[in-house]
Amino acid sequence: MKNETSKCVEQLVYEMQLRNYSVRTIESYSKLLTNVENSLELPLDEIGAELFKSYLHQRIMQDEISVSMINQFISAYKILQVDVLKRDWKTITVKRPRREKKLPVVLSVEEVQRMISATKNLKHRALIMLTYSAGLRRQEAQMIKPLDIDSARMQVRVVQGKGKKDRYTILSAKALEMLRQYYKIARPEKYLFEAQGKKGQTLSDTTLNCIVKKCAAKAGIRKDISFHTLRHCFATHLLEAGVNIRLIQQFMGHTSIKTTTIYLHLANINPASIQSPLDSMNI
User: Fold this and answer.
1) Nearest one of 195, 185, 178 to 131, comparing CA atoms
2) Catalytic: 29?
3) Catalytic residue among 55, 182, 191, 263
4) The pTM is what?
């Protein structure tokens, strides 16, 4: 079984590389399918849909794995069946679970300001300001390089963001000034924000989340937030400021406008501040 497992996983990796999946996704999917095989003690090509669903059900009941994790299992299994084993997915189809419709936690503009003001560490302050002001994802903040900061056009270039897409987002003048102060002292070698004492290495996921949580705590913010909260704040605050949702979609790098419309439920917009189009007419 070990030889068969190795062969299937190698073929999975090969197919995913051809389709230009990220290294992180390839490693994740390979590990998930290896776990399935080891748990069921069967080669991957002998694990049918019903057995696979039984495994997922067991994990859900015993380990309480998240909806996101279940979807990753299904996505990996689909690539295995369709691209590696050349089977028809329509006859196999494992339906995805219904997602809970939870709204993300968002800070007010005043809370973000307090958080930035309470952050005395220059690197952490520059990181938070850039992430919030440009709406960056965690991995995008990790991988951003000095040359991605375009001060001439006041834009931030995001290279190969989610979905392997490049995009441009806005660069804040205040964030730029902070970045310049930080750069003069830190002199990063490759990435804009590098691990302490490790030139050329990115900050870890855990470190990034810890930075945001600690800075929020210093500001007296008790909301349960993560690094991604800064991105949610960016979109919500732009919407509250009257920025067109299509522009926000572009800045966020969302493929579908439906993803961006969640911020309509978060934005605190006063109806009294909105003028009817009739009132602008000269009649």
Assistant:
1) 178
2) no
3) 263
4) 0.71
